[in-house]
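Reader question, answered in our methods column.
A reader sent in the components of a multi-part assembly and asked whether the whole thing could be modeled at once rather than chain by chain. We filled in our standard form and ran it. Here is what they sent:
COMPLEX SIZE: two components
ENTRIES:
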Amino acid sequence: MDLLSYFVFFSVTASIFGIATLGLNLQWGFTGIMNVGIVGFFGVGAYTSAYLTGPNYPEAFGGFGLHPLIGYLGAMLTSGLVAAVVGIPTIRLKHDFLAIGTFGIAICIQLVAMNWKSATRGFDGLHSLPKPFTALAGTPFLANLYYLIMVLVFIALITFALERMVRSPWGRMLRAIREDEDAAAALGKNAFAFRLQTFVFGSMLMGLAGALYANFMGFISPQDLLPIFTFQVFVMLVVGGSGNNYGALLGAVIIWALWTVTESVLGAILPTELRQQVSAIRVVMVGAILVGMLLYRPQGLLPERRNSSPEARIRN
Amino acid sequence: MMVQMLVDGVVAASFITLGVVGLSMVYNILNFPTFAQGDHIATGGYIALGLVALIGTAGSIAGLSFGWPLILALVCAAVLNGVVALALDRAIFSRLRRQNASRISLIMASFGVALMLRHLIIVFAGHEPHYFSFAIQPALDFGGVRITRNELVAVAVTTALVIGLHLFLSRTWLGKSMRAVSENPSLAKVNGIDVNRVILWTWVISAGLAAVAGVLLGVVVQIHPFMGFELLLPMFAALIVGGMTSIYGAVLGALLIGLAEGITVQYFVPEYRQAVSFIVVILVLMVRPNGILGEKA
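And here is the structure of the entire assembly that came back:
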């Protein structure tokens, strides 16, 4: 039972990572734009949902006590909005500006979460966020299980929608822009608009992941908004296969499993006073995996499929 | 108040300058913004810290909190940091170049290298801050403007290195080759410039200056695992403000960002120090997308 409830907990967190990885896949995998501030959009989503659904904190504003589903919707809206604000000045320019811009916004969002105490309670974080199904389920285990089912339904819907989108003419245009922007522009396509759209959609998924995380944990604080999160999502996509939605999900599960297993294994082998070292070794290991994949299998475990348009396949 | 703010800004700018020169060189010669530049600053600081620990003392000369042992450690750290950067290039970046990897792959790899360096530091030296010396240094008082001797040295060393770099880039064969490669690699190659040699020296100089930044930051403030990472956003901001393509622009950008930080810390909210550079970047990009010294679009 213990193992089973741990498995459910693991699956929920892995699925939340999976949603963020799908968001990055839309941005980098399909459109070739870089987001180095995934955790920023995750954080905006998490805090938005915390405000919309959380209780009224005496020392901080917010706490509307709304239904979590409204929190999720709000999270997608605000993270999409932040993405538009960062994207509009930077996406027209070279890739590097978006990379640096997203990196910057993530740092700023973490600084705000840490220091704007009257809104975010700083490191005390926002707590007692409602988890849907808690009353219905009765036990914490069932509540987590229902939450897992809900997240899996979300993933199914998102994956279905993304697969439809990338196979549509719109999706083919994304890849055309990724491969040769000048050629796409010569066909009269506005590369800026396509890029901005995918950047905003992808960031909305990252925001949704943040909201799902906040309501699942019931708590969000600046400790959850470290650059390491961005790095984990990178590795998940590179390992799984950038340009492949199923690869993104597979990568999320594999890397999250590796991450949690190494923590318990290293934690069991090494003495407790080396705890700092344990989590640091883990980061070095995952960094080595990222670099190794980029060098030896850049296409990932599940490479991008060619001819993703059904019509094209029939004619071939 | 006003002058104090300028002085603090110039001190902050000196660390950013030493870091951004390398960032700019790598960006223009190897064609990608390396997210590991901040952590090269940290490794440089830690290598010097280790060497000073081996010697046993940072020494003390002329009222400074350091002396010859630290200067020796600084020189060795600059060389060793260059070796580290070269080894990383051989192991990772040169292979990605050979595979014609996309720029995004290079950015991601540098992000991975950054996290590995930072966490290797934590594995070996822990999270706690370290100091080269615990000697207390009284600030000099110039009619109400306060600056420590260490800070004066940091500004002087930075100025000297920037001038030296300018002479190197404008007077020597290697320096001119570097500028040629950054402007047009194929044309440079056709003219018999050994691009691999240029790349080698790019890493050595960039990581060497980063090590100097790390040691000076350690002397003036402290050594800790995130010391370089915290400089990354200001460095990128300086690069963008300076127009990406010019080292001189980057140095000017560093000065501007340093002053903006000085103003924020003095008059507004010190906690948001890092955010300032980001706001400057967004403002500059909206008004002049190619930076202040950048070419017109």
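What stands out: Chain A touches chain B at residues 28, 32, 34, 36, 89-90, 92-93, 95-97, 99-101, 103-105, 107-108, 111-112, 114-115, 227-228, 230-231, 234-235, 238, 276-277, 280-281, 283-284, 287-288, 290-291, 294-295, 298 (CB under 8 Å). The radius of gyration of chain A is 20 Å.
Send us your own complexes using the same form.
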